[in-house]
Amino acid sequence: MADPGASIQEIELTLNGEAVARTVSSRQLLIHFLRDELGLRGPKIGCDTGHCGACTVSYGGKTIKSCMMLAAQADGAEIETAESLASPGGDLSELQESFRANHALQCGYCTSGVLMSARFLLERNPSPSDEEVREGIRGNICRCTGYVNIVKAIGAIGREEVSA
Amino acid sequence: MTAPAQKTIEAPTFVGQSMPRKEDERLLKAQGSFVDDEGMHRMGYAHYVRSPYAHAKIVSVDTSKAEAMPGVIATLTGDEVKAMTEPLFQFAPRANGQQVVEYLLGVDVVRYQGEAVAVVMAETREVARDAAEAVEVVYEPLPVLIDGVAAAEPSAPVLHESLGDNIAWKGLFDWGDIDLALENADHVVKIDKLHFHRYSSTPIECNAVLVNWDPGTDMIRVVSNNQFPMFGALVIAPSMGVGIDQLDFVSQDIGGGFGIKINSYTHIGVLALLSRKAGRPVKWTEYRTEHHQSAGHGNERTFTDIEVPVTADGTILGFKMKAFDDAGAYLHYEPLGAVIWSQVVPGPYKLKHVQVDYTETLTNKCPAVPNRGYSRMQHIWFVERIVDIVAHELGFDPVELRKKNYVQPEDYPYTTPNGCIYDSGDLPTALDKVLEMIDYEAARERQKQAEGTGKRIGIGIGTTLDSGTNNFGQSRILNPELPFSGNGEACTAMLDLYGEIMLKLGTNPQGQGHETTAAQVAADILKVSPENIRVWAGFDKSHSTYIGFSGTYASQFAVTGINAVIGAVEKLKSEILIVAAAAFGVGVDDVELANGSARMKDNHEAEIPFIGIANMVFANNATLPHEIATSVSLTCRYVYVPKFEVPDTEKKYGNLTLTYATQTHAAVIELDEETGKVEILDYAIVDDCGKRINPMVVEGQVHGATAHGIGAALKETFEYDEDGQLLNSNFLYYHAATATDVPHLKTDHIESPSPFTGTGAKGMGEGGGAPVHTICAAIQDALSGTDAMVTDSHNPPERIWRMLHTPGERGVTVTSKTSDG
Amino acid sequence: MLLAPVDYYRPDDLQGAISALGTPGARVLAGGQSLISILKLRAASVDLLVDISRLEELRGIDVADDGSVHIGAGVTYDEMATSGVLAGVHAKLCHVAAETVDAQVRNRGTFGGNLCHNDPINNFPPYVVALGATLHVRGPDGDRDIGADEFFTGYFTNSLKPGEILTGVTLPALARRGVGFQEVEIGEAAARAVAVIGIDNGTISSAQVALGCLPVPTRLPAVEEALVGSEPTAENVAAATATAGEGIDPVGDADASPEYRIAMAPVVAKRAVMEAIEEGGRHG
User: Fold this and answer.
1) Cβ-defined contact of A46 to B511 (cutoff 8 Å)
2) Who among A35, A46, A149 is closest to B703 (CB)?
3) A11 vs C contacts (CB less than 8 Å)
4) In whole angstroms, what is the distance from residue B584 CA to residue A4 CA?
5) B798: distance to nearest CA of chain C, Å?
6) Beta-carbon separation of B797 and C254 below 8 A
7) Are residues A128 and A104 in the same domain?
């Protein structure tokens, strides 16, 4: 549909390991592109101002809030979402197992974003202290868990306490 | 109380286990299904037109420019809605018939910033948004009223002409003899004012509705994250002139509710009408700013003219006070809050003489809706404040004073001044435990050491009750004509054609783990593993497994939901045994369940697996005696009904809630004198919710409720400026607690089984707001030695700084009968 | 949260960006952590976003022989936080970058964007003012330098001319001075101060103190004068910083009133100076 003031951008990116080519409006946010155009469920919308982190994905190996980026900026990028965490056969990753074992999710709405932030944190800091974990997930708001079990689940990976 | 009808589970294996949840796999793999993950063929997207004014006449609404935009499908205005619907159901019209008149969209007058006046539907989200901006609304601003106490004055601007004033409800609650108690008390502590602030649990997923009004069948299919869909149906169906039989509700995963998502029924109604007009399905997902402005706020309550009689030995005899609850601009679920607080009249204490002059007012703010802790939290905060202030003013030790006044373990079941029955608990033990967890002695030592350093240490205690499974008959105390009473929940337990075990619940959880706990309970009865039980994810009305109370709210699932599961599964078990007995040619007492089969008790080789039972009933019924084949269905619907009576509406007396979980919290804080900032150094919780079906799930609820309370106490608030503009309308200024705001929480538990629930379990998800009580007490303790009084539930740095640097009137006076030498 | 119609262009080099800025309604998009938010809230009207987030010319952290360091405007907070090069000469700046907002914002937000946006809650404006940094700018008329004391002109405004892009910032060498960075964290921050203190022979020999959370980050000459020549004791610092709130005019909001912010100015100034003294003491 015509959208005066915006232009059509052609983008090519790698999403969860697969090549994707699409056209997007210049005004479309990455989160809407991922959800509405590509049908992903991992990144979610929880706020208007980039605070809640439910939209967190990995962009070039670093976590970003996909509501704070234009779809057009994904051109040439490698993007991973929470859908990439389990094995192709559907087995939960060690991190996901730890979340399950430690009851680190309740409603599950923030979980995809938290998992991406947790993965990034652990890549940078394989054995984080509880304080470092809290600092690492500060950009993800959870209203269900009070963060206690999330910190426990991430810390368990660092302490290699989780048996798959 | 009569004996419970439900059986206690014999030899439980799975009940009581901290089993990982069935729900988790799909949620972890981003395979959950939330409303925005769903779609319907040819659906459009909706965007609301909302009032920027807190109070204004709607002069005109012109949708012509919007409708002319390419991609716009349909629009709907308040006038259209008024022409085709009835005003929304009100809980408590006055005796003379006066009531608030509200339609599904704003009509004639808007009464809060963000109130919806029109809605636009378009092919894409962007077009809907752009077109909504093109709708031209002309407003004539009116005087704004944001003071919930002043709203009761005759001089205040009147928000609803149909009422003639701003009083949503008013009543006097009076039990015992408070005036006599005040006369005879050794001390009377008078407190001018206490205030519980407005905030919300702000679930990360906002409201969302996907609805199609099918022109062929006239059925309205609603996919939404409303957490109490049957209540919503009861309200919108008469307004829209449809039967509840036309409404089909479906939900699967819901991203948090906390009570706020009870309120979204107006959207379901509006969007259904829009769908019918457009002839297509429509999806609406709420923006965060809309959510904060219009989804619903927790109760804001001001307590004034507080008088507390105390005897010389520290017995608190009761209290007298006026309460003003600010309901906002419309009554959605309110004024129920005006009676729900009375489930916990004396808080956790044996106070006997209570008088509350309660006024609920209307203001130009977002409507108040149940928010985690709904109405009881505000009241218990009040009770904890007065206990804390009495301790402070009269020189009692806050620990000893509490213990002295607590309901004692030997007092249960304990009848409160208004006839509520506290079922069980052990508050003194909980208090001792929690103080041990924060190393109370060492904390007091640390407090001494910190004196004069500019960083003050404070220790606070908060005891709270989480009343659950409420008797809806209490609504008649507000309006004797209301046809509501009791409570309950439904479950259907069935075998499918090949013997698969399935449970369908009338509840629709938002993270509380119902699929798992229901399976644990069912597994113990059917002697299978929870993995062999499929619990239908979410709610679906077409399962016919619901009653008027169905939904997930108000700390009741562990009682209503679980007892419904037990009832349904017991029925299913007995049908399986009947079929097996018939097949074996023996009596029902000669067969039992084991390992997914029914078998003879004295010959384990003689067994029929559930697939065989199902076969005989569903596809092979000529092999059964005819009277058996026609009396079993293996589809067993059960409604759990707790035993309640309709309360005495004259005396406002009766048992209003079945269970009372307790939580006792303790906090050690450090308060920076120069900035007023509070840091939590140590935090401990002892919870008691009776028998815990899944301890890990229970603890998760404790954690979550605590985080909400800590956020509310220190960072989260909804405040309006004098023009009625909400200052915290998204996460930019509403500072939802993050992982660095919530400290590590130490938890321990006691299990005082409820004698009233069969399983001994109690509902506990709301938590009771203890952190708010606790942190207020800790701040008060940190400020001892100064004149500062903690009189507000919300204490951000600036408020504390002002308490220290520019204290006003203390607002507390003590009158004592005898002056000690 | 949906954007109004806006166009997008990603130039291959800085010159292309400068040319594109000649289009009416064009605005630079760097990390986007502020600008995208503004566009979502429809608080500003932009017709063309010129994406400079991948321009190599804006990257890099380089230390010169004299110990001064040049930070490219496009360097992200995360790159600053994890830069061993930067840690070697301006450790406190690394630390401040590492604590900014959250990990996701740090992965995109840029040093230059933070400075140009000049939101009172931003970290780096008072930092560069306290240090007396030099900001390097390129525009249609060529290159020029702007002192930090002249760069910030008011709420969300700076002294860039139309078509100009901030390319980098040079921070002077610290020598053996210590840096203190203190704030009152309400929301992001309600009050903030940065202090750069030099100590020689047990006396404060140089003092630069700047307040943030203001439309223009502001040096405090009276405070600085009172500090220089005095012994670095808690009492002296408290006395010297007592006037820090005089003459400032912060705007109040839902987080804190103007009165509170004014009262906090001496508190954060004092704490920043004490921190700088301690930090400098470690090198001294």
Assistant:
1) no
2) A149
3) none
4) 78
5) 7
6) no
7) yes
Q: What is the pLDDT of residue B808?
A: 84
| Test the A interface: residue of C6, C8, C12 with most A CBs within 10 Å | C8
Q: Which domain holds residue A152?
A: 94-158
Q: Tell me which chain C residue has its CA closest to the CA of residue A58.
A: C104
For B268-280, what is the HEC assignment? HHHHHHHHHHHCC
Q: Do C254 and B733 touch (CB under 8 A)?
A: yes
**Is the per-residue pLDDT at C284 higher than 60?**
no
CB A101 within 8 A of CB A6: no
Give phi and psi for C133, each to the nearest 5.
Answer: -75, 165
Rounded to the nearest angstrom, the minimum Cα separation between C252 and chain A is: 20
B206: confidence class by pLDDT, cuts 50, 70, 90: very high
| Structural domains present in chain B | 24-32+488-533+551-640 (3.30.365.10), 35-142+201-295 (3.90.1170.50), 170-200+296-473+647-801 (3.30.365.10)
Mean pLDDT of chain B: 96
B416: distance to nearest CA of chain C, Å?
41
Q: Is B288 on the interface with C (CB under 8 A)?
A: yes
- In chain A, which residues have their Cβ closer than 8 Å to the Cβ of C107? 59, 62-64
Nearest-by-Cβ selection for C257 from B288, B727, B798: B798
Q: How many CB pairs under 8 A join B and C?
A: 38
Residue contacts between A and C (CB atoms, under 8 Å): 96
DSSP code string of B393-449: HHT--HHHHHHHHBPPGGG-SEE-TTS-EE----HHHHHHHHHHHTTHHHHHHHHHH
pLDDT tens, A123-140? 999 999 999 999 999 999
Share of chain B above pLDDT 70, in %: 98
Please give the share of chain B, as a percent, with pLDDT higher than 90.
97
* A84 reaches B (C-beta below 8 A): no
| C157 Cβ contact partners less than 8 Å away, ≥ 6 residues apart | C118
Contacts of B696 in chain A (CB under 8 A): 103
Interface test with A, best of B17, B19, B21, B27 (most A CBs within 10 A): B27
Whole-number pLDDT of residue C98: 97
Residue B817: its pLDDT value, please?
Answer: 87
B645 vs B821: which has the higher pLDDT: B645
Tally of domains in chain C: 3
- Mutation for testing the A interface, residue in C102, C117, C119 having most A CBs under 10 Å: C102
Touching chains, B (3+ CB pairs < 8 A): A, C
List subunits contacting chain C, requiring 3 or more Cβ pairs under 8 Å.
A, B
Alpha-carbon distance of A103 to A116, in angstroms, equals 17
**What gap in Å lies between CA B674 and CA C80, rounded to an integer?**
32
User: How does DSSP assign B239-304, residue by residue?
Assistant: HHT--GGGEEEEE---S--TTGGGTTHHHHHHHHHHHHHHTS-EEEE--HHHIIIII-B--EEEEE
User: pLDDT-derived band of residue A158, with 50, 70 and 90 as boundaries?
Assistant: confident
**Whole-number Å distance between alpha carbons of B51 and C95:** 45
pLDDT at residue B71, as a whole number: 97
pLDDT digits (tens, 9 = 90+) for B91-121: 999 999 999 999 999 999 999 999 999 999 9
Q: Given pLDDT bands bounded at 50, 70 and 90, which one contains residue B4?
A: very low
- Residue C190: CATH number of its domain: 3.30.390.50
Q: What is the mean pLDDT of residues B347-360?
A: 98
Residue A1 within any structural domain of the chain: no
Q: Is C130 helix (H, G, I), strand (E, B) or coil?
A: helix
Average pLDDT of the residues in B442-463: 98
B125·A49 Cβ contact <8 A: no
A64 plus A18 within the same structural domain: yes
β-bridge partners, B209: B224, B284
